[in-house]
Structure formats: structure tokens, C-alpha cells
Amino acid sequence: MKIAVDAMGGDNAPQAIVEGVMLAKKDFPDIEFLLYGKESEIQKYLTDQQNVQIIHTDEKVTSEDEPVRAVRRKKQASMVLAAQAVKNGEADAVFSAGNTGALLAAGLFIVGRIKGIDRPGLMSTLPVMGKETGFDMLDLGANAENKAEHLLQYGILGSFYAENVRGVKAPKVGLLNNGTEDTKGSELTKQAFQLLKDETTINFVGNVEARDLLSGVCDVVVTDGFTGNAVLKSIEGTALNITSLLKQSILDSGVKGKLGALLIKDSLDSLKNQMDYSKHGGAVLFGLKAPVVKTHGATKATAVAATIAQIHTMLESNVVGKLVRKFENSSE
Fold it and tell me: Which end of the chain is more exposed for a tag (fewer CB within 10 A), N or C?
């Protein structure tokens, strides 16, 4: 397996990226890493160069760059070269913590979408309280506007990923809506509901509400990109604020409160771990001819390693190859 890594993408690059690769190397000796970026900077954090190849470039895509323009004009940027390596057959997957819009553009324009898929969706596995398994949600922002047919494809894509990568048998697929009744929602969700209900290849369980997502109401949640992105950021913000509020309450509660916090420290750590979505890996632009995976810009080495583990599972299960055959056969 070969993974093309944008070593210069993200707030903590290249340190967090390279250190994460070093962590992942211990668990996955069958992966060869192609690191794209400034060689002198990458070398600072390399502790083992076995199965690691550095492809030097001084150019990179920044967070301020306009995504499509950056991909078209910055031909030697680390992210663009990593995507090009997949297109040329030199690597099997792309990983980046850089500009999300630019990675989406690179995935679409360079790697290319699978025949039969109109709009690939950005998908993440998010936590479920009290359970080790999470749920897959898409689209999380690859497409601001969608048609009902796109949401149907997201249901099929998410179900396919949950079954082949996460090992969920007959994953339950839900449509995010403002109520659970069949007649709820906008024209988009009403039309999507009927299409999902009529699709015999998925286990559609109907409409689901945002308040039930973290309780594990279903295995795959389908929504349009604008709504999905807003919900994702709400979940992230809530998790961060709850942690901050608990910490501040303990600090303000005096000696008794601090002693009590020591007694429930293990429980608090467990809660924090359950709310940590990064342990499930990164966001996949699913529906392309190869895995294109994005992790958070402020990611740390452990999250990078978790994302590489996710890519390893995707490659090992050949989920993209199976998806290509499924959609190309159905389109024919």
C-alpha cells in the first residue's frame, strides 16, 4: 500500500503530520508513505526513514487560498502533487490536513469521481455516547446544495462504507429532518425520503432528528452539505464547550469540588474519550476513484495516526474498488 501524504497541510504541519506517520508506521509496516513537502522541514521529525519517501517541493496550498484557483495554479503544491500521484498510479490514497476546499477540488479534478456518482460526499464517523462504534454522516460540506437524487446516493454510499469498512451488518440509514414523521421537512427531504424508502439495497429507517444523533439512532445519517456542515460544527462546538464548562466549574468550586473531581477523574476522562471524534479517523470524500481523506487542520500526531489506520482499512477492504463495480454496473 502507498499513501500520498500532504506533509505541509494543516496548522501544525509538518511536525504533527510526520510524527503521526511515525506512529502509524509501527502498526502498519505494509504501508509505504510518500511525503510531499519541504524536505529540510520534514527531516526534522523523521525518526525512521524505512518505507518513507520524501518528494521535495517548496510550494503549498494555504488556508487563505481560493480552493479551485489554488489547485489549478499551484501545480507543484504538496497537496496537488499528492493527488497527482494517485491519478498516475504511484499511490493508492491521498491524506491531508490542509485546506478542505482545495482537497475537495483536487479530489474531483485530479483523482476523479466514480462513473455513476453525481456528487461525492464528505463523510465522517462521529461518536455515539456509551458505545465504541459511531455513525457515518454525509454530506458534511462538499456540496452546499443538493437534489433528492444526491441524498439517495449518499444513503447508498454511507451504507456501503459502514458495511465494508466498519463491519456493520445491514447498517440503518436515516434521513436528517426536523421531525420523525414521514411527511415532515422541505420539498428536498420529502422527495429524498421517498427515494430512500424505495431503494431496496439499503436498510432505510426513516427520518431522524439532530437531538438523537449521538444516541446511536442509526448507523448512517444522510443530509445536504449545508445542513451537514452546520450540524457537525454544532456537535464539535458543544463537545468543546461542555469540557470547558466542567473544567471551569471544578476550578470555581473550591477545595471540596477539586477533591470530588479527583474521585471522578476516570469517568471524566472516559467522557472526553467518547466525545473525541478524531479517534475514528478523518473525513472521506467518498465517491472518488481512490480514498481522499481529510483530517482537522489543528490535528495532532495521534489523530494523524488514527486517520492512517482508517485509510489502511479502506485499502485493505478494497471498498473503493467494490464501489466502482457497484455503480458502474448499475449505471450500465
Answer: C
What is the pTM for the complete model shown?
0.85
* Average pLDDT per block of 10 residues along the chain, 332 residues long: 95 94 94 96 93 96 92 95 96 95 94 91 86 86 90 95 93 95 92 96 95 91 94 80 73 72 62 58 90 89 93 93 81 54
State the CB neighbour count (10 A cutoff) for residue 106. 32
Distance CA 182, CA 180 (A): 6
User: In a 10 Å sphere around its CB, with 0-12 CB exposed, 13-18 middle and 19+ buried, how is residue 209 labelled?
Assistant: middle
